[in-house]
Amino acid sequence: MSRRSYLPHALPDEKIILLVRRHPFVLFGRMLLWIVIGLVPAALALMVPGDFQGIMENAVGFPLAVLGLSTLYLFLWVFLLNSFVDYFLDVWIVTNERIINIEQRQLFSRISAEQKLSRIQDVTAEINGFWPTFLRYGEVHVQTAGTEDRFNFHQVPQPNDIARKITSLAEMKRRYDQVRDELDRAET
After folding, report:
1. Is residue 38 part of a domain?
2. Which of 28, 39, 50, 59 lies at a 20 to 30 A Cα distance from 22?
3. In the predicted model, what is the mean pLDDT of the chain?
4. Burial (Cβ within 10 Å: 0-12, 13-18, ≥19) of residue 144
5. pLDDT per residue over 68-89, tens digit each?
6. What total of structural domains would you count in the chain?
7. Nearest to 139, CA basis, from 173, 168, 101
């Protein structure tokens, strides 16, 4: 799949500069939580005093245990899938023309927003906490001149580098637009 396919409603001569997803550690943390919860029944089976096999051979206990465990693991698979879908489909795209923010809110709910680079007023990078500082991931806040207060890039790797690149692109775009406007005025 080419990088071009990620670009919704591509403008002429528009090129992807950055395609950013959350840091992989965020996905690892979520997956680890669900895996630990999945190991709880096995740990409980080892810690239950007495004859666990006798309980499982009981005519009523076995079907209830199978039903309960099947339900638990079905929900765990759904939560694991939801965590992966949320990670994979949350994407922030920075092109030479605009910023596109695509966030998966729920399994069947997605929000997309975009803003032109020339409308960017302020870009801030923020890193809070031990793991984000150690692994260098955090938030990037983009303040625009539009009705949307901020574009927030959540838990992205290297937020300082991303903020610097967006600021640089916005400045270049503003200078390019000024020169183009001056040339247009000079021609008329």
Report:
1. yes
2. 39
3. 85
4. buried
5. 889 999 999 999 998 899 899 9
6. 1
7. 101
